[in-house]
Amino acid sequence: MISFIVPAFNEGEAIRLTVETIRSVAATYDLVGYEIIPIDDGSEDNSKEIMEQLAQEDSRIRPVYHPENKGLGRSIVDGIHKAVNPQFIVVPGDNDISTESLSLMLHFKDEAEIILTVPLNKEARPIGRQVISMIYQMMHNIFFGTSVGYLNGPGIWPTEKVKALDLMSNRFSIISEMNVKLLTKGFEFAEVPMYLQADEPTRATVTLRNMLEVIKVFMMLVVELNLKPGRPEKKPLNRVKIHFGR
Predict the structure, then answer these.
(1) How far apart (Å, rounded) are the C-alpha atoms in residues 160 and 162?
(2) Backbone angles phi and psi of 75, in degrees to 5
(3) What is the spatial distance between Cα 99 and Cα 191, in angstroms, rounded to a whole number?
(4) How far is the C-alpha of 42 from the C-alpha of 36, rounded, in Å?
(5) How many CB atoms within 10 Å of residue 57?
(6) With b meaning 16 or more CB within 10 Å and e meaning fewer, what string describes 8-31?
(7) Which residue blocks in 1-71 are alpha helix, DSSP H?
(8) Is 97 exposed, middle or buried (0-12, 13-18, 19+ CB in 10 A)?
(9) Are 87 and 2 in contact (CB under 8 A)?
């Protein structure tokens, strides 16, 4: 009983590969009642047609179509609000998560309310992106006390609790915003390792537009969680230790 949210913008045939990855892992764990929610964020290629075909082949696939590009953040939020299962997982439409990593996440999905992932092979990303990611992570840990390995990666989250959040991000800050708001509310979490796919990214994510939103959302979080009068008191991190030998 889990929803797979698959945001996609001009991913083409990679969407089909992503769905195949999800189906393969779901079959391994004998998942029942799962759904796949691909979101076409105003793609200019054949992404919509591929999603339509997949939905005709499998009733568990329930696409969302944006007539124009709204950004990764809005795509994920729309997917969350369409999800009907108690947990959801975000799987990028470019098939960036390996079968092994997705399997590990699902294996431990009931260990905590939130399952976070920590990439082990960060060298799979360009050095500039690694440096920016490190600074980004450090700033969030300092200002919000979120002492976790990685805030902006794939994970598993409680659907209804995330639906109750007021999420501001339109683009790449969405996952970190969601995690910061949940972690500072004291929801329990666990971390599992993951491997990024070895292929080079087909599209740059470190753009001026994305960087401006990262700064904007970070400042809004500082105000909301640290400076706003009458703000709720931040709760200590509620970490669950996973025993990987089981």
Answers:
(1) 5
(2) -60, -45
(3) 17
(4) 18
(5) 10
(6) bbbbbebbbebbebbbebbeeeeb
(7) 14-28, 47-57
(8) buried
(9) yes
- Provide the 8-state DSSP code for 113: S
CB contact at 8 A, 151 and 180: yes
* Residue 8 and residue 43 in contact, taking contact as beta carbons nearer than 8 Å: yes
CA separation for the pair 50, 12 (Å, rounded): 7
Q: What single-letter DSSP state applies at residue 225?
A: I
Q: What is the pLDDT along the chain (246 residues), one digit of tens a residue?
A: 899 999 999 999 999 999 999 999 999 988 888 999 999 999 999 999 999 999 999 999 999 999 999 999 999 999 999 999 999 999 999 988 888 889 999 999 999 999 999 888 777 777 887 888 888 899 999 999 998 999 988 899 999 999 999 999 998 899 999 999 999 999 999 999 887 765 544 455 557 777 888 899 999 999 999 999 989 889 999 999 887 765
CA angle at residue 143 from 97 to 207, to 5 degrees?
A: 50
Structural domains in the chain, sorted by start: 2-239 (3.90.550.10)
The amino acid that residue 233 corresponds to is E
The pTM is what?
0.90
Distance from C-alpha of 110 to C-alpha of 87, rounded to nearest angstrom: 10
